[in-house]
């Protein structure tokens, strides 16, 4: 059994920003949780760092993949109540921890002004190596650096303030998906249909998976069991970091 949180996450926040590396990352790990937030009245924005142009399992021409994957992510976001989806256009599979990346994420944080940020863990998950794509870990580390100290420091990337008028902003919580030290679960049983609808939107990525629904449902059932939820429940798990 995972030890309980020492600090409980906020019960409700007005705005959440989800920063992920690829189209579909948020849907595999967190779409059920996002659906609970939007259902409860929270505004959720997606910031996707790449267009997923290195993904896919068929003969789709590479130049078409970014267009397809952006459209798929827009459709998936709509399935869970998200309409604001932003793409930064970095190359898939080649994300590096640069100052430019930190600045660009900080810009979106200052624009959205979220109380909570969801991203991927910067730690490698040895028990499930597929969760630790290098882009995922880079995204998590860059986002954490943007949360602290960049976005809250008016003297970091001063051009964001002087040229773009974006005031500093402090994020209170960061939720890390695919973390080896997850300490918080969200019961997403009632959001299963919406999560699966979001995932099915990513045709270029899941069209070759005949039992997508069963696979994803089994993952969430195992997570719920691991965290002591009653039988028959489904859950998504996160490491919650308080950053304010």
The residue ranges in which pLDDT falls below 50 over 5 or more consecutive positions are none
Rg (CA only): 17 Å
CATH fold category name: Rossmann fold
Report the helical percentage.
Answer: 25-40%
Strand order of the largest sheet: 3-2-1-4-5-7-6
Series of secondary-structure elements, N-terminal to C-terminal: EHEHEHEHHEEHHHE
H/I helix tally: 8
Query: What does the largest sheet look like?
Result: 7 strands, mixed
Overall tally of structural domains: 1
How many beta strands in the DSSP annotation?
7
Structural class: alpha/beta
Strand percent estimate: 15-25%
CATH architecture term = 3-Layer(aba) Sandwich
CATH superfamily: LmbE-like
The CATH class label is Alpha Beta
- Mean pLDDT across all amino acids: 94
Give the N-to-C terminal Cα separation: 28 Å
Keywords: Zinc
GO molecular function, one term: hydrolase activity, acting on carbon-nitrogen (but not peptide) bonds, in linear amides
Protein name: N-acetylglucosaminyl deacetylase, LmbE family
InterPro entries: GlcNAc_PI_deacetylase-related (IPR003737), LmbE-like_dom_sf (IPR024078)
Description:
By secondary structure, the protein is of the alpha/beta class. It has a single domain (15-242), classed as Rossmann fold (3-Layer(aba) Sandwich). Helix content is 38%, strand content 18%. The chain has 8 helices and 7 strands; from the N terminus they run βαβαβαβααββαααβ. The protein has helices at residues 25-39, 65-79, 99-112, 134-150, 159-162, 192-200, 203-206, 212-226, and strands at 15-20, 43-50, 84-90, 116-120, 173-177, 184-187, 235-242. Strands 3-2-1-4-5-7-6 form a 7-stranded mixed sheet, sandwiched between helices. α1 (25-39) packs across α6, α2 runs antiparallel to α6 (192-200) and α3 (99-112) crosses α4 (134-150). The radius of gyration is 17 Å and the shape is globular. The relative contact order is 0.20.
């Amino acid at each position: 059994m995972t030890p309980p949180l020492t600090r409980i996450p906020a019960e409700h926040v007005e705005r959440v920003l989800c920063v992920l590396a690829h189209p579909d990352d948020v849907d595999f790990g967190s779409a059920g949780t996002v659906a609970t937030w939007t259902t409860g009245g929270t505004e959720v924005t997606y910031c996707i760092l790449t267009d997923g142009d290195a993904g896919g399992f068929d003969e789709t021409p590479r130049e078409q993949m970014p267009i397809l994957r952006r459209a798929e992510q827009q459709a998936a976001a709509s399935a869970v109540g998200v309409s604001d989806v932003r793409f930064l256009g970095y190359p898939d599979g080649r994300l590096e921890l640069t100052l430019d990346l930190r600045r660009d994420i900080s810009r979106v944080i200052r624009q959205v002004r979220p109380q909570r940020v969801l991203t991927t863990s910067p730690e490698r998950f040895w028990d499930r190596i597929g969760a630790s794509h290098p882009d995922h870990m880079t995204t998590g580390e860059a986002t954490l650096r943007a949360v602290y100290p960049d976005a809250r420091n008016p003297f970091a990337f001063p051009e964001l303030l002087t040229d773009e008028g974006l005031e500093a902003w402090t994020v209170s919580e960061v939720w890390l998906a695919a973390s080896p030290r997850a300490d918080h679960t969200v019961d997403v049983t009632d959001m299963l249909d919406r999560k699966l609808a979001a995932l099915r939107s990513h045709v270029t990525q899941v069209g070759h998976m005949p039992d997508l629904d069963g696979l994803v449902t089994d993952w969430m059932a195992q997570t719920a069991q691991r965290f002591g939820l009653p039988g028959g429940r489904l859950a998504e798990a996160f490491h919650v970091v308080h950053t304010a």
